[in-house]
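quick one, 288 residues, struct below
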Amino acid sequence: MKVRIAVGLGSGALDGGEFATVVTSLAALGFDSLWVSEVLTSPGPDPLIALATAAQLDRKLKLGTTMLVPGRNPVRLAKSLATLDVMSGGRLLLTFVPGLAYGPERDAVGVPVRDRAAAIESVLPRLRRWWAGEEDGGVRVSPRPVQDPLEVWLGGLAPASLERCGRIADGWLGAACTPREAAAARAAIEEAARRADREVDPEHFGLSIAYAHQPLDDRQVAAMAARARGRDVDPRSLVPVGFDALRATLRACIDAGMSKFVVRPAAAPGSWTDELTALAAAVTGLQT
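---
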């Protein structure tokens, strides 16, 4: 199993100099890719613009995003992502998410939570057809991605999300879950794939993991509790504190069948250079 570890920017703000430092440091330190999440109400950058910039700053680093589907024009989405894959020489990694269902982000997405799954179900098959050079709705999209096919992973931990992933996605990138929950999610996805007469590559299971250097404050605990609502999980257990705890969490998740990881600081570091150097020393040795 090929274990790969990437770095996510998290939701903090970066200026142009900080962003360039992150991009140019990651490949040199042995990380697999840079990931930019889409959270509309956070101060973090827009993923399409940030990754297009990163593609020019480094010509080898892979570029990943967890991107919203609800609220987007499907043709524009197909063209933007295909263009980014072309301009980066086929380095785009893509996970679609429905968006957060609480706080300001719930309304900013612009699509009721109850309708977001249907948006993914409707849009993903159309994207695949356009990227394959086919016509859909009287429209063809050009350019086509360099990657053929351009794979799409999905997130989510709810039973319906896992069933959807097994039925239509190329992989799963979970978040805010324990190794035990991740193992159960993989089993549910593989069962759904079998029912749909298809298979998800056994190396296409991963997790996005936030880590901290200090115990979570009340605001952070409340945010994690909202994500874990309805599950028998201590929200504090979802964010390892310290590099030793992060490394132990990664090992446990590897044992649970995960092999692709996006690790991200829960709070913006004082120095990205120092943070990435220390993080690399702690975790890149787990890559195989």
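The domain at 4-153+210-254+263-286 is CATH 3.20.20.30 (TIM Barrel).
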